[in-house]
Design goal:
This protein has two domains: 154 residues, Rossmann fold, CATH 3.40.50; 87 residues, Orthogonal Bundle (DNA polymerase, domain 1). It is of the alpha/beta class. Strand 4, helix 9 and strand 5 form a beta-alpha-beta unit. Helix 3 packs antiparallel against helix 4. The chain is elongated.
Length: 253
């Protein structure tokens, strides 16, 4: 029996850190808004709630574009300016735009165990693929800085819309065996649900500071293979667990 698997990895907050940098920028944004609107005592919760609402709406409308985040900061600023009848300032908006774009200048940092996990899976003969959402130039910069091509070669898919149809297109057009193909990522919305819908196996890496956009209800049916783990280091064991069970089942049959 061929035990080699086809494994698609998400990039942001699966292999490398992402959300924590957005959190740092948002922390600066909250401080600035509270300083500018000091007379109105706007709470951190109010600011974050409005920014998240605007940011998520943008992703739904246009996908993972680099302009979404800085635009959400500016639109949040305009919301509170209108609400409290504070005059909007062009220079303040320029500052917020630069602050938002600075997220893409952050140093790329791998999650603990990234290299060891990829090395382990590669050494066992599994075929590794990278499937990430975002703009090509930004995502490719991260890939190059982490030297991930040594694991994925040209088996890299970058999509501005990361959903059921995008994954289905990749699987249908590629030489994938759905029974032995995995989608691994931290997002229930863009990784797990599309994978289960396409009839793939999936590993959900649950992180503590998840982006609200990624959090959705999951309706899992018994015939779907889904593992939930707390770190990327647990991925090889989960995959081996299924391979072992499949081998035992075939032996019994």
């Amino acid at each position: 029996m061929n035990t080699r698997q086809q494994i698609l990895f998400d990039l942001d907050d699966t292999l490398i850190h992402c959300n924590k940098y957005f959190g740092l920028i948002l922390g600066q944004f909250v401080e600035v808004i509270q300083e500018w609107f000091a007379d109105h005592e706007i709470t951190t919760e109010d600011i974050r709630k409005k920014q998240i609402e605007i940011d998520i709406a943008s992703v739904h409308n246009v996908g993972f574009k680099s302009g979404n985040f800085p635009r959400s900061l500016i639109e949040t600023y305009r919301f509170f300016s209108n609400k409290y009848n504070r005059k909007m300032d062009r220079l303040e908006e320029v500052y917020l735009h630069k602050l938002g774009l600075s997220i893409y200048d952050q140093e790329v940092e791998p999650y603990p165990g990234m290299v060891e996990t990829l090395e382990s899976l590669k050494s066992k003969g599994h075929h590794l693929y990278l499937y990430t959402g975002g703009e090509t130039a930004i995502q490719q910069r991260k890939i190059d800085q982490m030297k991930l091509s040594m694991y994925f070669d040209d088996r890299i898919y970058i999509r501005e819309h990361k959903n059921v149809s995008s994954l289905e297109q990749i699987i249908s057009n590629g030489n994938f065996n759905r029974e032995s193909t995995w989608m691994i990522g931290n997002s229930l919305r863009t990784d797990v649900i599309p994978a289960l819908t396409a009839g793939l196996c999936s590993i959900y890496i649950k992180i503590s500071n998840e982006w609200e956009y990624n959090i959705v209800d999951l309706e899992q049916t018994p015939d779907h293979i889904l593992y939930t783990v707390g770190s990327i280091e647990e991925v090889p064991e989960a995959i081996q667990h299924k391979i072992t069970n499949d081998t035992k089942q075939r032996t019994l049959n």
